[in-house]
Design goal:
The chain is α/β, with parallel strands linked by helices and 316 residues long. It has one domain: 3-Layer(aba) Sandwich (Rossmann fold). The chain has 14 helices and eleven strands. This is AB hydrolase-1 domain-containing protein. It comes from Coemansia thaxteri. Pfam families: Abhydrolase_6 (PF12697). InterPro entries: AB_hydrolase_1, AB_hydrolase_fold, Carboxylesterase_BioH.
Length: 316
C-alpha cells in the first residue's frame, strides 16, 4: 500500500486532524470501474493505523465494478498523532462530546478535492460518529458501513463507570520490550490479531518528554473524556437514526456487549435503507480480532452496493 500523511483542519480553530491516505500501488483499468473514497473512523482509545490489516485486503481486492481511489484513515483530535499535534488543547480534557468527532469528520470531507462516492466505515465510537455526521449533514455519504457501534438511550451511569476504569488502566512502560510483554499477555489484547498488536505498539505509543517513559498517545484522561461525552450524543444519535439518508450496513459481533443483535434490530427499525449482519463467535472488537474476515464482509457489501444502478453523489 502507498501511504501519504496529511494534516487537515479540525472543526475547532487551531486544531488539526492527522490522517493517513492509503491507495493501492497500482490500479489497472480504473476507467471501467467505480472509484470510491473511504473515510475510516476508529474506536475510542485506538488510532488510524489499526485499520491497515483490514484495509490492505480491501484495497487489493480485484473487483470488476469498483476500486478504492483513496482510503482516508483519521486520528480523532484527541487520539493518536492528532493528540500529539493538539497536545496543548487536549491536555487536562475531561469531557469530549461525540458531536466534536462528527464535526471533524465533516470538516475533513469538506477539504477534499473531489468529495464524491464517499463510503464511511467506522468502528465503535467511530461508527457512531459517522452516523451522527450523516444526521448533521444528510447525504454527505453515499453509504455507511457501521461496525459494532455504541448506540444507547440510557443514562450516563455506565459511561462514568467505563471512564473510571480507563483512568486506572496502565498507560506507561519503561521500554518497548516491557510494553510488548504487557500487550501480548494482557487478556484484553491477547485475542487481537498479531498484526494489530504490532501496529498498536508501533504507532500507539510515544516517548513522554518529562518522564522518558513510553506512553499511550491517547492518554487515559482523553479516552475517559470520550466515554463521558457519550451522555447526550449517543442517545441523540440513536433517537435520530431515521434521519440517516444513505444506505447503511451494520456489522456486529454475535458476542458483542455493545451491540447485541436484538438491540441493533430494535433501534434500526425506523431506518429507510438498512441491513444488519451478525458475525458469529465475535465480540465488540471484531475488527481487531479478525481483520481478514471483517474485510471480506466489507468487500461483499461494496460488491453489492456498487452493482446497484447508481451511487448517490455526496451533498456538501
Amino acid at each position: 500500500m502507498k501511504v501519504v500523511r496529511q494534516i487537515f483542519s479540525a472543526s475547532r480553530k487551531g486544531q488539526g486532524i492527522v490522517a493517513n491516505i492509503y491507495s493501492a500501488a497500482q490500479a489497472l483499468h480504473r476507467e471501467e470501474r467505480k472509484g470510491l473514497t473511504l473515510i475510516l473512523a476508529h474506536a475510542n482509545g485506538f488510532h488510524k493505523e489499526l485499520w491497515e490489516p483490514t484495509l490492505e485486503r480491501v484495497l487489493f481486492h480485484q473487483s470488476k465494478t469498483w476500486y478504492i481511489n483513496r482510503a482516508i484513515a483519521l486520528d480523532s483530535y484527541n487520539h493518536g498523532d492528532s493528540a500529539v499535534l493538539n497536545r496543548s488543547h487536549v491536555e487536562g480534557e475531561d469531557f469530549s462530546p461525540w458531536s466534536e468527532n462528527a464535526r471533524d469528520i465533516l470538516s475533513v470531507i469538506s477539504q477534499l478535492d473531489d468529495p464524491q462516492n464517499i463510503i464511511g466505515i467506522g468502528h465503535s465510537w467511530g461508527a457512531s460518529s459517522l452516523l451522527l455526521a450523516e444526521i448533521m449533514s444528510p447525504r454527505t455519504f453515499s453509504a455507511l458501513i457501521i461496525t459494532d457501534p455504541v448506540l444507547f438511550s440510557g443514562s450516563a451511569k455506565s459511561a462514568a463507570g467505563l471512564a473510571a476504569l480507563t483512568l486506572k488502566r496502565r498507560h506507561q512502560w519503561s521500554s518497548a520490550q516491557e510494553a510488548r510483554q504487557y500487550f501480548e499477555n494482557h487478556t484484553f489484547f491477547r485475542i487481537w490479531d498479531k498484526r494489530v498488536v504490532d501496529l498498536h505498539l508501533k504507532h500507539g505509543l510515544e516517548k513522554e518528554e518529562a518522564s522518558g517513559l513510553l506512553t499511550l498517545k491517547c492518554r487515559p484522561a482523553n479516552e475517559a473524556a470520550v466515554y463521558l461525552g457519550s451522555a447526550d450524543d449517543s442517545p441523540f444519535t440513536t433517537q435520530n437514526l431515521w434521519k440517516v439518508a444513505c444506505p447503511v450496513a451494520f456489522l456486529t459481533g454475535e458476542k458483542s456487549d455493545q451491540s447485541p443483535p436484538a438491540h441493533i434490530k430494535a433501534i434500526t427499525k425506523p431506518m429507510a435503507e438498512c441491513q444488519h449482519v451478525v458475525m458469529d463467535n465475535m465480540g465488540h472488537l471484531l475488527l481487531l480480532e479478525d481483520p481478514d474476515r471483517t474485510a471480506d464482509w466489507y468487500i461483499e457489501f461494496l460488491d453489492d452496493f456498487v452493482s446497484k444502478p447508481a451511487v448517490p453523489t455526496a451533498n456538501l
